[in-house]
């Protein structure tokens, strides 16, 4: 495995262009297999998860060309309904092919999806969707060569999917996306209630509309999808990755750097910027040109709530604060004067990476798997650490860039899954990151 050697306390300066939304790219690649006509996706980030989804699509029979952040997909023929085990276990988005395969072939054989190790990530809601649409589900349990237990799920709908009313038992983003794709190819009309409505879910809706699917309620938690058997050729540009934008705001503030972010959709940044302001970080924005400027010499002081109460930063479904930024806010809080509580409500293992930050000198009390109290500012020192997931990996990189001395970050493949050429992009601004 590759690793980064990072020399900290380097002040960065310059511009960073924000990539296309990783979490929009993955369902679009799966949904592109609905149509036998050409699909062109632009502003696609060149990251590990996108590479993984393209590799799975190729295994299923699609022809894919990638060049200059453009992915062209031809899926005239689906040659198998079985997802490849090794590829699927590396990326949670692999489960999105289940809906496409059910529409195209009437069956889907999928192993337990992989992805970040941030705690249990239930897939029950996906199967609720498929059963409501008329699919039958069975499972097999096997042991892999490494001795791990692996479940394989067999989904069949030989007569096709039938539109219906679906109430999701949780507002799961990926389950909503699977429901949207499956309903697009189902007979009749499907209504999804308690749907997730994140910007990348809206992006998938707009993509499916371009394909010829009629969708009502985009941006709300009630979606009505009118299925079709005919799909058009589509060209679609991905929206900006607001998680990457938030990550770079933290990076600039923690390293006392002057950085301008470009290609930003300010319409999806409102609550993110508000939470950074609670940590004392101010930015200037240019909505017309899609830019955010983070000046150096920030007065990072945590702002108490009314009455002097310790503030709490918590994640919640859109339009709330995104869970993928809780790790980033945690490292940011270590460099701000004061005390705050980070409350990550979704995954019981996401905050376990705080052990690495504590080893670097951060003052953190992990109250339970979901809550951490941070007291700052902390003087961080270089250490040997490992990236457990995409967002924790980025948080550890920010910590290493903020620390005195050298750090070594192992398992950087996790960071590459969500951040394109992060070492090259930051080195161009003055960082010292050796791969």
TrEMBL record:
One of its GO terms (biological process) is UDP-N-acetylgalactosamine biosynthetic process. The keyword Repeat does not apply. Phosphoenolpyruvate binds at residues 22-23. Keywords: Cell cycle, Cell division, Cell shape, Cell wall biogenesis/degradation, Cytoplasm, Peptidoglycan synthesis, Transferase. Residues 6-422 form the Enolpyruvate transferase domain. UDP-N-acetyl-alpha-D-glucosamine binds at residues 92, 324, 346. The keyword Cell division applies. SUPFAM superfamilies: EPT/RTPC-like (SSF55205). Its EC number is 2.5.1.7. GO terms for molecular function: UDP-N-acetylglucosamine 1-carboxyvinyltransferase activity. It is found in: Cytoplasm. NCBIfam families: murA, PRK09369.1. This is UDP-N-acetylglucosamine 1-carboxyvinyltransferase. It comes from Chitinivibrio alkaliphilus ACht1.
């Amino acid at each position: 495995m590759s690793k980064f050697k990072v020399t900290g306390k380097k002040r960065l300066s310059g511009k960073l262009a924000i990539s296309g939304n990783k979490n929009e790219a993955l369902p679009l690649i799966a949904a592109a297999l609905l149509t036998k006509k050409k699909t062109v996706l632009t502003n696609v980030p060149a990251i590990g998860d996108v590479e993984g989804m393209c590799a799975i699509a190729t295994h299923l029979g699609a022809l894919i060309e990638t060049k200059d952040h453009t992915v062209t997909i031809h899926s005239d023929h689906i040659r198998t309904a079985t997802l490849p085990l090794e590829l699927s276990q590396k990326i949670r988005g692999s489960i999105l092919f289940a809906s496409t395969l059910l529409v195209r072939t009437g069956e889907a054989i999928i192993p337990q999806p992989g992805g970040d190790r941030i705690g249990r990530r239930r897939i029950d809601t996906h199967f609720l969707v498929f059963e409501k649409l008329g699919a039958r589900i069975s499972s097999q349990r096997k042991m892999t060569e490494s001795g791990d237990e692996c479940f394989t799920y067999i989904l069949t709908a030989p007569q096709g999917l039938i539109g219906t009313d679906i109430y999701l038992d949780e507002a799961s983003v990926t389950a909503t996306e699977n429901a949207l794709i499956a309903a697009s190819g189902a007979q009749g009309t499907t209504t999804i209630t308690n749907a997730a409505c994140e910007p990348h879910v809206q992006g998938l809706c707009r993509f499916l509309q371009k394909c010829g699917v009629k969708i009502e309620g985009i941006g709300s938690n009630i979606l009505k999808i009118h299925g079709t058997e005919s799909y058009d050729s589509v060209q679609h540009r991905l929206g900006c990755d607001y998680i990457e934008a938030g990550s770079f705001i933290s990076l600039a503030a923690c390293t006392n750097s002057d950085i301008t972010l470009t290609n930003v959709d300010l319409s999806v940044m409102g609550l993110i910027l508000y939470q950074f302001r609670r940590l004392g970080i101010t930015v200037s924005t240019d909505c017309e040109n899609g830019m955010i400027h983070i000046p150096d010499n920030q007065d990072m002081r945590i702002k108490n709530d009314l009455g002097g109460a310790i503030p709490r930063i918590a994640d919640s479904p859109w339009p709330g604060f995104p869970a993928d930024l809780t790790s980033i806010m945690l490292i940011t809080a270590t460099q701000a004067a004061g005390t705050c509580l980070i409350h990550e409500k979704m995954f019981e293992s996401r905050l376990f990476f705080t052990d690495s930050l504590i080893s670097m000198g951060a003052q953190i009390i992990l109250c339970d798997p979901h809550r951490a109290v941070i007291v700052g500012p902390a003087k961080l020192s270089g250490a040997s650490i490992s990236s457990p997931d995409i967002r924790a990996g980025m948080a550890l990189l920010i910590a290493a860039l903020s620390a005195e001395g050298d750090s070594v970050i192992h398992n950087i493949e996790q960071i590459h899954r969500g951040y394109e050429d992060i070492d090259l992009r930051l080195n161009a601004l003055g960082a010292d990151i050796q791969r």
